[in-house]
From TrEMBL:
Gene: leuA
Record protein name field: 2-isopropylmalate synthase
Lineage per the UniProt record: Bacteria, Pseudomonadati, Pseudomonadota, Gammaproteobacteria, Lysobacterales
Species assigned in the record: Marilutibacter penaei
Leading EC class: transferase
Gene Ontology cellular-component annotations: cytosol
HAMAP family listed in its UniProt record: LeuA_type1
Length: 525
């Protein structure tokens, strides 16, 4: 195979992505995300549209000054003021790019701009020339290119190259094209744009028909060497081409595309999460690569296959995109192989007859619960009523918190009963109320948990909604998930923490330190 063709990744999460309703970011958030994009290995970061607001100009300014390792681009209409605003905001950038655009399609020319073909062409040339007065790296975009007459598109692109454009972007602004059509258009433009070799061809696809990634890949086949995309596929309307999907398609199907990017794929999930946290826009569970279900398996036949060879149901390794591992979800569709494997990880090696008994109980429980957690499995094995299955129980909880000088330090005190009904009380301070609570529980039980993630969600509605807390901790290479439910989220959090601690103690994964304050409950009465 020849050397792979390098594909430039142009991320526009901070410009087109920010145009998604509800995705506006502050200047500080944009800078934080730009730094993450540079670390991810993005070639070009489109930082904003400086003419749109003072806030965006400030955001672009700080990104231009502080982010290194990626080209920083900004967008402008073919309008003197917009272009000059880009130049001023980009001052201090090590590698600045001005990106100018104008619509070329008949629909946009007539109804949006009220301009003839000749006038659009003149404006395009003016825009590129003015941008070139400021910087050497100028990108020209023909908005709504996929609904433009191909001969006129080639004419505008030729004029843009002659005026000094170094990148020619061919956007499918309304997500209208199909893979075979866009591939043919890129082939046509490469053959018909004058001095085409002086510029890099770029693709920018929207997802109105769910084809943005497929169309971007087809554009690469047609000769595009830059792909404009966003993390999580955010962007106008149905969004843009999702970077994580495109990058992994090129990686997984390397033999087919023979193309490579500079993206450090292990940073895809952390970057996706950072964007969700900043924008408050959650990623759908079944989203490819970065969705919670992307490497989760619930059905027995798949789990059985995965246990034999992960390649049976996974085309890429979760570790390669930033997940810690695949997830076997125990639910209504799971079979004996997955159950036996999970029980073994929890420290139970069951004979066939015992496994069959637990399996029957598991299936009955899974009919009632969407997901069967480790604690449920242990209760099935040990017998829900046995003291060993119950473990530590929370009897009292008090948490107080405050912030700043003069305020109370976040402090928690807890009282627990152990399996012999002896009472243990402990208190601790922490960085916040949950941290203090977990520290008090660790003292009381003698179990140190390395909490990897903590999440609270509402499971019912109304003022008295039940909150469900989920804690994920890793001990001895095994990931443990604990959950707890209560109308009080701190109590739910304590139950979730104890859910894991009890299981660790029961399975002897980590010897618990003997808590020092244990006294028989009767003595307190
Ligand atoms: C496909 C895309 O994603 S394009 C980028 C979309 N991004 C944005 O719109 C960024 C945010 N936009 C804004 O803040 C505002 O729209 C501004 C500041 C840019 C302009 O605001 P206003 O001056 O009030 O104009 P308004 O938004 O109402 O209309 C757009 C104007 O730009 C003109 N225009 C649109 N595209 C272009 C272009 N590429 N080149 C030159 N003029 C253009 C329109 O014809 C219209 O002109 P008119 O005011 O003379 O009728
Ligand atoms: C300005 C261009 C690149 C754009 O965002 C589009 O056409 O969708």
């Amino acid at each position: 195979m020849n050397e792979p063709t390098p594909i430039r990744i142009f991320d526009t999460s901070l410009r087109d992505g920010e145009q998604s309703p509800g995705c506006s970011m502050t200047a500080a958030q944009k800078l934080r995300f730009a730094l993450a994009l540079a670390e991810l290995g993005v070639d070009v970061i489109e930082a904003g549209f400086p003419a749109s607001s003072e806030a965006d100009r400030n955001a672009v300014r700080s990104i231009a000054r502080e982010v290194r390792g990626s080209t920083i681009a900004t967008l402008a209409r073919c309008h003197e003021g917009d272009i000059d605003a880009c130049a001023s905001a980009l001052e201090g950038a090590a590698a600045p790019r001005i990106h100018v655009f104008i619509s070329t399609s008949p629909l946009h020319r007539e109804h949006k701009l009220g301009l003839s073909r000749e006038q659009v062409l003149e404006r395009a040339v003016m825009g590129v020339e003015r941008a070139r007065r400021h910087v050497d790296d100028v990108e020209f975009s023909a908005e709504d290119a996929l609904r433009t007459e191909p001969d006129f598109l080639a004419e505008v692109c030729s004029a843009a190259v002659a005026a000094g454009a170094t990148t020619l972007n061919i956007p499918d602004t309304v997500g209208y094209t199909t893979p075979s059509e866009i591939r043919a258009l890129f082939e046509y433009l490469r053959a018909n744009v004058h001095d085409a070799e002086k510029a890099i061809f770029s693709t920018h696809c929207h997802n109105d028909l769910g084809l943005a990634v497929a169309n971007s890949l087809a554009a690469i086949e047609g000769g595009a060497r830059q792909v404009e995309c966003t993390i999580n596929g955010i962007g106008e309307r149905a969004g843009n081409c999702a970077m994580e999907e495109l990058v992994m398609a090129l990686r997984v199907r390397a033999h087919y595309y023979n193309a490579s990017t500079r993206i450090d794929s292990r940073r895809l999930v952390p970057t996706s999460r950072l964007l969700s946290r900043i924008t408050g826009m959650a990623v759908q569970r079944n989203k490819a690569v970065v969705g919670q279900n992307a490497f989760a398996h619930e059905s027995g036949i798949h789990q059985h296959g995965m246990l034999k060879h992960r390649g049976t149901y996974e085309i890429m390794r979760p570790e390669d995109v930033g997940w810690s591992q695949s997830q076997m979800v125990m639910g209504r569709h799971s079979g004996r192989a997955a159950l036996a494997d999970r029980l073994q990880a929890l420290g139970f090696n069951l004979e066939e007859a015992a496994l069959n008994r637990v399996f029957a109980g598991f299936k009955a429980l899974a009919e009632k619960k969407r997901e069967v957690f480790d604690g449920d499995l242990e209760a099935l094995v040990l017998g829900a009523d046995s003291a060993a299955a119950r473990g530590w129980r929370l009897t009292r909880l008090h948490v107080s918190t405050g912030a700043g000088e003069g305020d109370t330090l976040p402090t928690a005190s807890v009282q627990l009963l152990d399996t012999d009904d002896r009472s243990v009380s402990e208190a601790a301070v922490g960085d916040g109320p949950v941290h203090a609570l977990f520290a008090a529980l660790a003292r009381a039980t003698g179990v140190d948990l390395d909490v990897e993630s903590y999440h609270v969600s509402s499971v019912t509605t109304g003022d008295d909604a039940q909150g469900q807390a989920q804690v994920i901790a890793r001990v001895g290479g095994v990931e443990w998930t604990g959950s707890g439910t209560s109308t009080d989220i701190l109590e739910a959090s304590a139950h979730a923490w104890l859910d894991i601690a009890n299981r660790i103690v029961r399975t002897g994964r980590e010897p618990a330190r003997t808590p020092t304050h244990a006294v028989p409950a009767a003595a307190l009465a």
